[in-house]
Design a protein that fits this description.
Blueprint (H helix, E strand, L loop, with lengths): L1 E3 L4 E10 L5 E12 L1 H18 L5 E5 L2 H7 L10 H9 L4 E6 L6 H13 L3 E3 L7 H11 L13
Parallel strand pairs: 4-5
Antiparallel strand pairs: 1-2, 2-3, 3-6
């Protein structure tokens, strides 16, 4: 997941790799500087793929809450020039992912929180264990693994 605190503004990325039992193998949070939300989404995915390659992971399912990014990767939407270089590198790695799919933000809560941590704290961190994750992210991962639903909070506009 990538986030931008404005569009453009301070941005970050986050992600995690899980096994088939939804246990965390490795996770990351990173800072990108000032950019748009789409740029942050692309950079976060590329950062995650590079991390997966460095850890010897392959045949992974890429899931993103950015429908635009998934459509671009599937060739169903045009690629803005500003992310063309990163998308070309992602295409080079495409043999490593078995599936690309969109998920709703509510299903992406742990990585959404990791991306915001990267943007807010301005540093990049790799978490080698679920125990290394920040407490709130660890809680999100646990609830997600249990299949507990996640809801988006919003203001009532009655």
């Amino acid at each position: 997941d990538g986030c931008s605190r404005g569009n453009p503004e301070r941005s970050g990325g986050g992600g995690l790799f899980r096994d088939n039992d939804r246990r965390v193998l490795v996770a990351f949070s990173c800072y990108f500087g000032e950019m748009t939300s789409l740029q942050a989404e692309v950079k976060a995915l590329l950062h995650g793929v590079r991390l997966g390659v460095a850890r010897g992971l392959a045949n992974f399912h890429v899931e993103s809450d950015s429908l635009v990014l998934i459509q671009i990767l599937q060739g169903r939407a045009k690629c803005p020039w500003v992310v063309q270089k990163e998308l070309q590198e992602l295409a080079w790695y495409s043999h490593l992912y078995t599936k690309l799919s969109h998920c709703f933000r509510e299903a992406n809560k742990p990585v959404d929180r990791l991306a915001k941590l990267g943007a807010d704290f301005g540093e990049s961190v790799v978490y080698d264990s679920v125990l290394d994750l920040p407490r709130m992210v660890r809680g999100d991962v646990t609830l997600d693994r249990w299949g507990s639903p996640s809801f988006r909070r919003g203001r009532y506009k009655g």
